[in-house]
Amino acid sequence: MYSSIYKKQKMIVLFTFLLLPVTLLILFSLYPGVMLLYLSFTSWDGYSAAKGWVGIDNYREIFRNSEIFSVFSHNLYYFFGGIIQNIIALYFAVVLNKKLRGRNMYRMLIFLPYIMNSVAIAYMFSYVYDSQHGSLNALLTAVGLDNLITSWLGNKHTVNISLAFISMWKYLGFNMVIYIGALQSIPDDLYEAALIDGANERQSFFYITWPSILKIVELSMLLTVTGALEVFDLPFVMTKGGPAGASDTFVTKTVDTAFHYSNYGLASAMGVVLLVIVIAVITIQRKFILREEKG
């Protein structure tokens, strides 16, 4: 009898604790996800009550229209910028993990951009990249590199590089902190034993540090790939996708399709495609990681 009462109380407690998070999960994740999938098969304009069923026409439009998928080439700038950012972040993490005077101040200065508002950063760099009075062009003039002066956000060959650099600058500190945390989890005994055996700093890094932080590097690269696919704020605020769509990303294109052209059906299909691509990338990386673990 007591066992039965205990089981009922246990079920009531479990149900009570799970009720709120499960309800929030359904309301803010599952329901919007199901509606997104449903709208992707309609021609809804976002205003009318009628949602005409068009089957897979929106998906056909995505894969047939080269203008939609070609914007992924702009995301590549952020991906390669993310790789460079990880390399620099790891370098700073290794340097600032050593006993260095003022290292906390250097860490704070590098991490500071990450906690700044993205819109504020966008406006700040608008003045840096200004073609007439920008500090970057003024610096190039001062050092005699006038031939490099250009409209950094108005030139289709430089706009994505300029935006990717801002993203790299903003998230450098975040990755550095992650790497410092990983480095501090490595026991000092390993380095002391390597030092006694005559290992130099390069050998200690490649045979002790790198294998110890490899999983963190893989996690950071996963965030880099997904972040590069989902870039939105910087091109939206600074260039509106310009000039002539040269800085459009897949997300800005999706938002433009929904709110500028009132084609919510096609925009929903683009959202589903992006979701599938992100899941595929994560799955491939997870498979790769698991294969490494088995090896």
Account of the 3D structure:
- The chain is mainly α and 295 residues long.
- The chain is built from 13 helices and no strands.
- The protein has helices at residues 2-39, 57-64, 66-69, 72-96, 103-115, 118-128, 135-142, 159-184, 188-196, 201-229, 233-238, 250-260, 264-294.
- Helix 2 packs across helix 13 and helix 4 runs antiparallel to helix 10 (201-229).
- The mean pLDDT is 88.
Key structural traits:
295 residues; single chain; 13 helices; 74% helix; mainly alpha
Q: SSE order in H/E notation?
A: HHHHHHHHHHHHH
The profile of the biggest β sheet is: none
H/I helix tally: 13
Low-confidence stretches: none
Strand content: under 5%
| Separation, N- and C-terminal Cα atoms | 52 Å
SS elements, strand count: 0
Shape: flat
Average pLDDT level? 88
- What structural class should be given to the helix and strand makeup? mainly alpha
Rg, alpha carbons: 25 Å
Oligomeric state as shown: single chain
Condensed summary:
The protein is mostly helical. 74% of the residues lie in helices and 0% in strands.
Topology readout:
Layout: H1 2-39, H2 57-64, H3 66-69, H4 72-96, H5 103-115, H6 118-128, H7 135-142, H8 159-184, H9 188-196, H10 201-229, H11 233-238, H12 250-260, H13 264-294
Helix pairs in contact: 1-13, 2-13, 4-8, 4-10, 5-8, 8-10, 10-13, 12-13
